[in-house]
Every structure is written in structure tokens, then in C-alpha cells.
């Protein structure tokens, strides 16, 4: 998940893929170090270290077969996914809550954030600062991105970005797709009017995009 976010941020995706589509998918979500139920060591974090945490976890589960995993990340989670070889549009915030439990989507997001902050053991200033350092220092050169794409396979990579992302602006997504090799098979999807966390803003669309990508990848040799 992204900076200073709990694994429960994936609840809609777990409901859809893990339960409604449970006969086909198995989901793994976890708190990054520094947040939630994970340890919170005081040290300089990096996205490469967060990726190592992920590898240790999947190794523990025995999920180590070639091409066994579909890795999905949001924001800092996307940065972490690269190492493996928040903000919303105003119109969306003001729109009626997609699930009908709150007056607006913004109210739902605020309630989730308040609930997170009330967890004084799970959400700490130390953990947030350490994760912020990891996200802020993340860097991949064009050469490193090209090497990553060579190893993963460009048809297995998808870059998804909103046009009104206020945290990581749209040109960064364009650059990422270009350096990974958009002209050589990397899929780029730009969602008009969406902000930083598409899986929350456009849940149904996000699920469809993921399913299409998974089907595409599973059809590759």
C-alpha cells in the first residue's frame, strides 16, 4: 500500500478478488514496515528494503514459483513493486458516496483516515516519517527501468495514472511508461479526471483493468 496507509486500504479489492472471485484468486495484503501491525524499527527506510520485506513474506508463504504472483501497488507501493524485478480529484470527493454509507466520497475517505489515526499503536509519527523517507528517496534511472522491463517482460507491465493526481503528477506517469518501454509493449492507461488512488476513486473500473491485465499475462508463455 502507499505511504502511511494500512493494508485495509485494499478492502474493496479483497472483497472483489478474494471473496467474490475467490475461486480464481488468492489475495495477500500486508502492512509495510512502520505502519499498522508490522514492526516499526527506527531506521532509514528505502523502497528496496520494503521490497525485501515483501520477498521474505512471499517466501515464507511458499509463493515462489515462476510467474506465480501478480504484483499490484499504489503510490509508494508502486515504487516498491519496481524494486521487485494520497490525494483525490475534487469532483470525486464531492460526489455521492459510491457505496451509499456516507454523504460523499470525501466523507468516506475522511472517516477512514480518522479511524486510522485513532489507532495510536498502528499509526505512528515515527512510522510515517520513515515511510516518507523511503518514498521521497525512491529513484530509478532510465537504465534501471529498462533493465527491470527486460527481466519482467514489457507485456507484463502496466502503468496506470490519473490526470489530476495531485501527489505524483501525470507527466511522471508518462515518463515511467516511456522509460519502461511503452513503444515495446508496456501498457499505459491514463484515467481522465482521476487523482492519486484510482482503486478507491474508480473501484469498478480498477477491478476490470486488473482482471484484463491478469488474463493477458496468464495467456503469455
How does this model look, in words?
Helix 2 (47-61) packs across helix 3. The chain has 221 residues and is mainly alpha-helical. Strand 1, helix 8 (170-180) and strand 2 (187-191) form a beta-alpha-beta unit. The chain is globular and about 45 Å long. Helix content is 48%, strand content 5%. It starts with 10 loop residues before the first helix and ends with a helix. It has helices at residues 11-20, 47-61, 76-83, 90-94, 105-118, 125-136, 142-152, 170-180, 198-201, 203-218; strands at residues 158-162, 187-191. A two-stranded parallel ribbon has the order 1-2.
Characteristic terms for this protein:
single chain, 221 residues, mainly alpha, two-stranded parallel sheet, 10 helices, 2 strands
Task: Sum this structure up briefly.
The model has no long low-confidence stretch (mean pLDDT 89).
Mean pLDDT across every amino acid position: 89
Strand content: under 5%
Fraction of residues in helices? 40-55%
Question: How many helices?
Answer: 10
Let me know the largest β-sheet.
2 strands, parallel
**Widest sheet, order of strands:** 1-2
Q: Based on Cα principal axes, name the global outline.
A: globular
Q: Radius of gyration from the CA trace?
A: 17 Å
What structural class should be given to the helix and strand makeup?
mainly alpha
Q: Note the quaternary state here.
A: single chain
Strand runs, count: 2
Q: What is the helix/strand order?
A: HHHHHHHEHEHH
Amino acid at each position: 500500500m502507499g505511504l502511511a496507509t494500512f493494508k485495509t486500504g485494499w478492502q474493496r479489492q479483497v472483497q472483489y478478488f478474494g471473496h467474490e472471485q475467490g475461486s480464481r484468486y488468492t489475495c495477500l495484503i500486508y502492512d509495510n514496515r512502520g505502519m499498522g501491525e508490522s514492526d516499526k524499527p527506527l531506521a532509514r527506510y528505502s523502497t528496496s528494503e520494503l521490497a525485501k520485506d515483501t520477498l521474505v513474506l512471499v517466501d515464507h508463504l511458499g509463493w515462489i514459483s515462476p510467474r506465480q504472483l501478480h504484483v499490484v501497488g499504489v503510490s509508494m507501493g508502486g515504487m516498491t513493486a519496481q524494486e521487485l524485478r494520497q490525494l483525490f480529484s475534487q469532483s470525486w470527493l464531492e460526489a455521492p458516496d459510491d457505496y451509499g454509507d456516507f454523504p460523499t466520497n470525501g466523507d468516506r475517505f475522511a472517516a477512514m483516515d480518522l479511524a486510522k489515526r485513532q489507532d495510536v499503536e498502528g499509526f505512528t509519527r515515527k512510522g510515517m516519517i520513515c515511510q516518507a523517507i523511503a518514498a521521497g528517496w525512491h529513484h530509478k534511472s532510465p537504465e534501471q527501468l529498462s533493465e527491470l522491463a527486460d527481466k519482467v517482460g514489457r507485456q507484463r507491465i502496466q502503468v496506470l495514472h490519473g490526470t489530476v493526481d495531485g501527489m505524483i503528477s501525470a507527466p511522471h506517469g508518462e515518463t515511467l511508461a516511456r522509460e519502461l518501454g511503452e513503444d515495446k509493449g508496456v501498457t499505459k492507461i491514463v484515467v481522465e479526471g482521476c487523482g492519486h488512488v484510482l482503486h478507491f476513486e474508480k473501484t469498478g473500473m480498477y477491478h476490470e483493468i486488473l482482471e484484463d491485465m491478469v488474463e493477458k499475462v496468464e495467456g503469455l508463455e
